[in-house]
Design goal:
Blueprint (H helix, E strand, L loop, with lengths): L1 H16 L21 E5 L6 E6 L15 E3 L1 H4 L4 E7 L5 E4 L5 E4 L3 E6 L7 E11 L5 E5 L2 E5 L4 E6 L5 E7 L2 E5 L2 E5 L3 E6 L4 E7 L6 E3 L2 E3 L3 H12 L4 E2 L8 E4 L6 H12 L4 E5 L2 E6 L5 E4 L4 E2 L7
Parallel strand pairs: 8-9
Antiparallel strand pairs: 1-2, 1-5, 3-4, 4-7, 5-6, 6-8, 7-8, 8-11, 9-10, 10-13, 11-12, 12-15, 13-14, 14-24, 15-16, 16-23, 17-18, 19-20, 20-22, 21-22
Organism: Niastella vici
Protein name: FecR protein domain-containing protein
Length: 311
């Protein structure tokens, strides 16, 4: 009874804020194939534990009034119960988003995600920054700077889309479809697509490692050291300085110790990439050997045309 009363109160507040005078609009209707979040959890960087941020009650409505600040009803414009989600992750923040369909999304620091619970029956995400997606029993479409990335059920992928850097789409498991400039292509497992934002050029690379570039739950397997350290900078707000004058003899990177997983992640990276040798000494990463032979160019054949269910 208490939850039902809270639900009606939340709908009443929403109707009041958005000018809804129709009492029938206070009662949610059944909508087919919703894309609702079960909860939002913040991953703590020091021990990778989950801290719930928002949980949802009856009817998948926000269970506390603070959540109303982040959700917007579409009811006034279209008469449905669509919820718009806007979520940004700041430095040292990482959000775990499990959906009712079984899909999980990991939103990394410095990233922004927006989507609607109902989008004409299609699940479409808009991403800025970096996120990891593992689809459940559904398919998901992701908009990345005008390109459409489609992942079917049982697919795992990583998307990297920060300003002033190329877009990197990594297929970790399954098959990813990319719609790019009116053409459609398939990205197989352990393959990455690179899109240059300035020249709008797409190229692909295939990984020889057991896993494609993956950055999930604090574990890292990256193609090169600068990329790995750049992610540490974004994720944990580390001041990182490069010394590129003597690459053959070693590269020095200085940073203060703030959290413990940094050396652990670099050790994972080293095991996955035996061409790298480094030492951690007095707040410095001293790289003594770099050998980048883990990727080779590979072409992906794109065909003109569109898919039948483009978002």
């Amino acid at each position: 009874m208490r939850q039902k009363t809270l639900l009606l109160l939340l709908h009443f507040l929403s109707a009041t804020l958005y000018g809804q005078n129709d009492l029938l609009s206070l009662f949610p209707r059944q909508i087919p194939k919703p894309f609702y979040l079960k909860k939002i959890s913040l991953i703590l960087p020091n021990d990778h534990t989950e801290m719930p941020v928002w949980k949802y009650g009856i009817g998948n409505c926000p269970a506390d009034t603070l959540s109303l600040m982040s959700f917007f009803h579409k009811k006034q414009l279209t008469g449905d119960d669509t919820l718009f989600y806007f979520l940004g992750a700041g430095p040292s923040e990482q959000y775990l988003l499990p959906f009712e369909t079984g899909t999980e999304i990991l939103l990394n620091a410095g990233s922004f995600l927006q989507f609607a619970s109902i989008n004409e029956g299609k699940k479409k995400l808009i991403i800025r920054g970096e996120l990891y997606v593992a689809t459940g029993n559904d398919s998901v479409s992701i908009e990345v700077e005008g390109s459409i990335v489609k992942a079917g059920s049982g697919t795992k992928l990583n998307i990297f889309n920060y300003p002033d850097e190329p877009i990197i789409i990594s297929c970790i498991e399954g098959l990813v479809e990319i719609k790019y400039q009116g053409s459609v292509g398939l990205l197989p497992q352990y393959t990455e697509a690179y899109i240059n934002k300035s020249g709008l050029h797409l190229s692909t690379k295939k990984s020889h490692a057991k896993k494609a570039c993956e950055w999930v739950y604090g574990k890292m397997e990256a193609p090169d050291l600068p990329s790995a350290l750049k992610r540490i900078l974004r994720w944990y707000d580390y001041p990182i300085f490069f010394n590129n004058r003597d690459v053959e003899n070693g590269r020095v990177v200085e940073f203060p110790y703030r959290i413990t997983p940094v050396d652990e992640m670099l050790s994972i990276y080293q095991r996955a990439n035996p061409g790298l040798e480094f030492q951690i000494h007095k707040g410095k990463i001293i790289v003594t050997k770099i050998k980048s032979t883990y990727f080779e160019e590979q072409s992906i054949h794109f065909q003109s045309g569109t898919t039948s269910d483009d978002p």
